[in-house]
Structure formats: structure tokens, C-alpha cells
Amino acid sequence: IAGITQAPTSQILAAGRRMTLRCTQDMRHNAMYWYRQDLGLGLRLIHYSNTAGTTGKGEVPDGYSVSRANTDDFPLTLASAVPSQTSVYFCASSDSPSGGTDTQYFGPGTRLTVL
Amino acid sequence: GQNIDQPTEMTATEGAIVQINCTYQTSGFNGLFWYQQHAGEAPTFLSYNVLDGLEEKGRFSSFLSRSKGYSYLLLKELQMKDSASYLCAVMDSNYQLIWGAGTKLIIKP
């Protein structure tokens, strides 16, 4: 069982280019999340999905879009990358979106540099 | 606004005990989580508290006081492998996690 996988591991991207970060989980979790992690700041939620077919905006959604066509996959797209989107991106999943003792499990992350 | 505060960095000695504090102000409360994150790796779950009191799990314990908006993570018998960042996160009224910036723990021999 792989858990959550993300691709690519790292990427250097020219500003203005389009980029999709991939995330796949094999735990059949209902909820999935995208975070960015920047030095000196806590993880910040970009977008989330409580179940397949639904998505929602987090704290910092501007410049990003997501889709949830099925349970396993939750890609994050940067339509036109800007240098301020340089960050480490983590995908996470949980069995239920309503918290409680429900734990979020994280993928290994994608390190993105926008020049 | 919502805010999670924890020290930026702490240093401790191998074999000793260290306490990492976390204070929070959030819109609603549905539990507090502690995660461990080694450099260059993903956060991994350590503990969850939703009721006041102490939760013990091996060498790690976590305490919560909801009235004070306060939690701590206690690490006993420190090992070199415990060198990592420790992230405090609170689940708010919308069931979204609000994260602190993390405490980098340095263990010295």
C-alpha cells in the first residue's frame, strides 16, 4: 500500500507556464487537501475536497484550481505560475472531512520553484 | 483572526525531557493535533486531543486546556532521531486545520 503519492518530486518552472501537480491516494479516503508550506509559516490550505465531485476553497486559493473526478485523484493546477507560488506543496487525505479523531495523512510533497 | 503560536526553535539534550508549548485562538474548536516533520519530509501524525487533560503515547504525551487555549507536547527520553519540527494544528468550526509555523527541535548529544 503506497498511501499517498505525489508527482513530480520537484520542478523548476518558468513564470507564466501552466503546471499540474498530481496526487493519488489508495486508502479510499473521502476527503483530500492541498497545502503549501513556506519557511516561517504554517501549512496553508489551498483547496480541499470533502468527497469525489466536490471541491472547496481554502485560505489561499488564488492562482490555483483543483478537480476531483474520482476518489483517488486530486490534481492541483497552476494556470499561469508566478514566483510567489514557489513553495513546497503537500497533498493530504482523511477518511472523513468532519474531523473528530480523523487524521490527515500527507504525501511526500512537491518542491516547486517558479523563476 | 485565527492564530496558533509556538516557539520557533528549542534545543535539548539526548536522554532529557522537553516540553513544546502551543497557544491558539481560533473560530471554534474541534480538536488539536500534533505532527512531527523531519527536514525534507512530510508531516506525520503524533497525537490528537479534544478533551482537557493528558494523552500519553509511549515517550510522547500531549496536554490540552481548552479554557486557556493551550496545549503542550512532552517528549521524554529524547533520542537523536527526535530532531525534527513539531507542528501544532487546531481544527476550527469549519473542520479545517489551522496550523502553527512549527517548532524546530534540536537534540544535542
Entry summary:
With 115 residues, chain A is an all-beta fold. Chain A has no helices and eleven strands. Chain A is globular, with a radius of gyration of 13 Å.
If you had to describe this structure to a student in words, what would you say it looks like?
The complex is a heterodimer of chains A (115) and B (109). Chain A has 115 residues and is mainly β. Chain A has no helices and 11 strands. Chain A has strands at 4-7, 10-13, 19-25, 31-37, 44-49, 56-57, 64-66, 76-78, 87-94, 105-106, 110-114. In chain A, strands 2, 4, 5, 6, 9, 10 and 11 form a 7-stranded mixed β-sheet that branches. Chain A has a 4-stranded antiparallel β-sheet with strand order 1-3-8-7, with no helix packed on it. The N and C termini of chain A lie far apart (36 Å). The mean pLDDT of chain A is 93. With 109 residues, chain B is mainly β. In chain B, the strands form 2 sheets. In chain B, strands 2, 4, 5, 9, 10 and 11 form a 6-stranded mixed β-sheet that branches. The N and C termini of chain B lie far apart (40 Å). Chain B is 0% helix and 57% strand. Chain B has no helices and 11 strands. The model of chain B has no long low-confidence stretch (mean pLDDT 95). Chains A and B meet through strand 5 and strand 10 of A and strand 5, strand 9 and strand 10 of B.
